[in-house]
Design a protein that fits this description.
single chain, mainly beta
Length: 206
């Protein structure tokens, strides 16, 4: 039996963990210190990962799938958390996620597809005492550095997540440094150069 080919790979920033995903959606994590298999990630409920990456300075592995859901696998605890409530605006979007990347300071997660880029402020997430990720239910839970307060110490309404459709088709994006994001797109006219010539059908009487 021929094993399923490996599709995406991800390495933790400390080069301690290597995650791989095959064409069947099976995600395996290996320890690079021991060169041994460490864990198998549980199957995602709505389809295999289409993008994955480790958070900076962390062993937590984040996933997105073509159903535009978001998950975090806490490697050291071997536990999967569903964070799809943080990207609920993407639920019914016709194009599925194809990539994700983190800002160098781990404050923002960018999830992207061929036609959109969606930024998630990671301050929306919190960890419980057990270490599990959860979504903050109120702006009051956010620190003042992220969500400013008014004179009555009430949080000022701000948009924590943002959608951009400026680039299309989007092929790749990643940070060069804290203030610079590299975006690679292929203009549609460039893509059309590689299409087959259109068919010509002779119509009667012309």
């Amino acid at each position: 039996e021929i094993p399923a080919p490996i599709t995406p790979l991800a390495v933790s920033h400390a080069s301690q963990w290597l995650a791989s995903c095959d064409a069947n959606g099976l995600v395996q994590i290996h320890g690079l210190d021991t060169l041994q298999h460490y864990a198998t990630v549980p199957s995602l409920p709505s389809g295999p990962p289409s993008a994955m990456g480790f958070a900076p300075n962390s062993a937590d592995l984040f996933f997105a799938n073509t159903a535009n859901q978001l998950f975090a696998y806490r490697t050291e605890e071997r536990t999967l958390d569903n964070l799809s409530a943080a990207v609920v605006e993407l639920k019914d979007h016709p194009f599925g996620a194809t990539g994700l990347t983190f800002s160098p300071d781990a404050s923002v997660l960018f999830v992207w597809s061929t036609t959109w880029m969606y930024s998630v402020r990671l301050s929306l997430l919190k960890k419980t005492r057990s270490g599990a990720y959860s979504i903050r239910e109120s702006l009051k839970e956010l620190p003042a550095s992220v969500c400013p307060r008014d004179q009555n110490d009430e949080p000022v309404t701000i948009k924590l997540n943002r959608m951009s459709t400026r680039y299309s088709p989007l092929l790749y994006c990643d940070f060069l440094c804290a203030e610079e994001l590299l975006v690679v797109e292929c203009p549609w006219m460039k893509a059309l150069e590689h299409f087959a010539q259109p068919l010509y059908r002779h119509e009667f009487g012309t």
